[in-house]
Amino acid sequence: MSEQRVASGPGRPRLVLLAALAIIVAWLAVGSVGGPATGRLSEVQKNDNASFLPADAESTSVLESVARFSDEEEVPLIVVVERSDGEELDLRAGAALLKLAEDLPSLPLGESGETLGDYVVDGARIGPVPSEDRKAALIVIPLKEAAVSAVVDGEAPVVAAADAVRTKARIDLAATGLGLTSSVGGPGGLIADFSAAFAGIDGVLLLVALCVVLVILLVVYRSPVLPLAVLMSAVFGLCLAVLVIRPLAENGTIELSGQSQGIMFILVVGAATDYALLLVSRFREELHEHESTWVALKRAWRGAVEPIVASGATVILGLLCLLLADLRNTSGLGPVGALGIAGALLASLTFLPAVLLVFGRKAFWPFAPRVDHHHAEDAVGTRSLWGRVSGLVGRHPRRTWVAALVVLLAAAAFAPSFKAEGVTIKDTFLTATDSVDAQEAIQRHFAAGSGSPVQVIVPAEQAEAARTVVEADSGIESAWVGLTPPVPGQPTPTAEPVDGLQLVQGTTTGAADSQEAEDTVRRLRASLDPVSRDAVVGGQAAINLDVLDASGRDLRVIVPAILVVIFLVLCLLLRSILAPLLLVVANVISFAATIGVAQLVFDHILGFGGSDPAIPLYGFVFLVALGIDYSIFLMTRVREESVRRGTRPGILVGLAVTGGVITSAGIVLAATFSALTVLPLVFLVQVAFIVAFGVLLDTFVVRSLLVPALSYDIGPKVWWPARLAGDRRAAPGAAPDERRTSEPSGV
């Protein structure tokens, strides 16, 4: 036996140690393959709104029909030119713009050898088209859909096209000496700016998240070994997930956007760290009891595996409920996030225990725990922070939970005023972007909807009648039949029907991302019914409207589904009905309070112009599915202690012993989600704030005060319909020594 200990370490059988080393090597292999794939994951993203539309939306039908009027679906790239002094464009300026328009098709795109003309629909371009006030002009470059979907030199050609056009226009127009300025926007320019915003997602975002977690773990553990082991666990879990996600995204099986990729990165790092904190905490506890690290790890793993698996299963099932969404970017987040959590779960339950077994007590160096038989219940009623909190809950349970509930309800009162009806392009980015500048220039000199017309598909025989109805609408500047709008001074192009259908288009007076344009789409969908019941209305404004409507539908469908799933998982975990019901209700109240606070912050402090319609759903999924983790960590330990001691002392012991680890986990998750703010998009900043604030609220108020105090007040009935052995032993009539075990220890 002594020889075996010399060879394999104290309390670590040789075969077990070899198995641990094999597990570590296997994960290193996963990391070596998955690491490079993670760095290239953004190559399979789709970030255009059209690719997220529900299949049965009117705007989706129009997109499919419009593509039949041309060999390629068009993605317009719009160049807007003005004079810096605000004066009219003269003949010299017109000649310079014409020359620019003629030169653009031959513009090279990076080092690929391709030119802009390779991605222009039929080699066509529109413009330059002067504004009525003669102070601006448009050059519209209709790009093929392949410019968005293809990948050349590691990026979509539309990104290279926008960059090349911006550089060419700036240099050529500056050379005229006429004070001409330009900006590039339209749908193509917007996609390019989104791609630029997500450019750092593979490197910067992940690096920031890992650095934040590293700093927190160094403070928590005061050890250089454990933080690195935990971070490696998170990275390997992410690599495993990416190895599954990338081929699925390439094949179109799942939708991957920059938003879902960024959120998945944060989910994996946050979840893996939370699971690690729980496992390491249990391991530290057992090392105070057992000399053998193998025995300590076995007991720690057995104690932690149930809440970790339950937590992971809850989040995975909650995310998979997103598959019920109509919006494809929302439904795509479901499997992407679920695969990420699965990777984090597997790494946390295999790689990290293997590392802990190999290092043993040295993993905690220089503060390695000693065998001193420090027991969990010793924390209750002490002067430590969580000893004091548990003491407060034991002395004043009803006062504590009522006060916590009042605070939460007061914050929740502001939730109904949360504005999630969409945002304009200007309010989408946190930094200045060329596409926003282009849209503002268009609004100054043209009908605001120029370049993003309303599109109507009708039977060919009703086309002229439909055009009349469209043009008569108060929100329409002009309307025409066919793919190409008429250009002043040039013959009107012939519009040929396709399969008995005709395309009617109209320029809206309001920008395509405005409420005015969406109202115009609603009116046209009603007013075109008398012309033809088969008329369908699409275009960018219709896409925005359909996204808003689908988001409302998704919220109504998915929220109840997630609540049912979480409730059932908790019932199985806690063998109770009442306790899961209390946990779910508490987390819903916490979510409402978070949304109320977010409304005050977004509106009155940060001055955001509104929120994406998907924000409430994303916030609900992350806060309820992730926030319930901490209640799971708490209540599984409470149940474990209650079986031995009785419910009320079990609650106090569970709260005292899990307080530090769960608080650390909450801080880590809040900090990792805060890393999303490095990306200059309002949507992700809002998600980051809602989740970070909500997790901290759940950690310090719901899990620390509301849930334990309410459970303590209810007593053994909280496990209804079950009864725990500890409560039966403490029942009236029991022996005096047995009854004493159910009294609040240290209170």
UniProtKB/TrEMBL annotation:
<feature type="transmembrane region" description="Helical">
    <location>
        <begin position="614"/>
        <end position="638"/>
    </location>
</feature>
<feature type="transmembrane region" description="Helical">
    <location>
        <begin position="555"/>
        <end position="574"/>
    </location>
</feature>
<dbReference type="InterPro" id="IPR050545">
    <property type="entry name" value="Mycobact_MmpL"/>
</dbReference>
<keyword id="KW-1003">Cell membrane</keyword>
<keyword id="KW-1133">Transmembrane helix</keyword>
<feature type="transmembrane region" description="Helical">
    <location>
        <begin position="228"/>
        <end position="249"/>
    </location>
</feature>
<feature type="transmembrane region" description="Helical">
    <location>
        <begin position="400"/>
        <end position="418"/>
    </location>
</feature>
<feature type="transmembrane region" description="Helical">
    <location>
        <begin position="650"/>
        <end position="675"/>
    </location>
</feature>
<keyword id="KW-0812">Transmembrane</keyword>
<feature type="transmembrane region" description="Helical">
    <location>
        <begin position="681"/>
        <end position="702"/>
    </location>
</feature>
<feature type="transmembrane region" description="Helical">
    <location>
        <begin position="304"/>
        <end position="325"/>
    </location>
</feature>
<comment type="similarity">
    <text>Belongs to the resistance-nodulation-cell division (RND) (TC 2.A.6) family. MmpL subfamily.</text>
</comment>
<feature type="domain" description="Membrane transport protein MMPL">
    <location>
        <begin position="506"/>
        <end position="723"/>
    </location>
</feature>
<feature type="transmembrane region" description="Helical">
    <location>
        <begin position="337"/>
        <end position="360"/>
    </location>
</feature>
<keyword id="KW-0472">Membrane</keyword>
<feature type="transmembrane region" description="Helical">
    <location>
        <begin position="197"/>
        <end position="221"/>
    </location>
</feature>
<protein>
    <submittedName>
        <fullName>Membrane protein</fullName>
    </submittedName>
</protein>
<dbReference type="InterPro" id="IPR004869">
    <property type="entry name" value="MMPL_dom"/>
</dbReference>
<dbReference type="GO" id="GO:0005886">
    <property type="term" value="C:plasma membrane"/>
</dbReference>
<feature type="transmembrane region" description="Helical">
    <location>
        <begin position="261"/>
        <end position="283"/>
    </location>
</feature>
<dbReference type="Pfam" id="PF03176">
    <property type="entry name" value="MMPL"/>
</dbReference>
<feature type="domain" description="Membrane transport protein MMPL">
    <location>
        <begin position="52"/>
        <end position="398"/>
    </location>
</feature>
<feature type="transmembrane region" description="Helical">
    <location>
        <begin position="581"/>
        <end position="602"/>
    </location>
</feature>
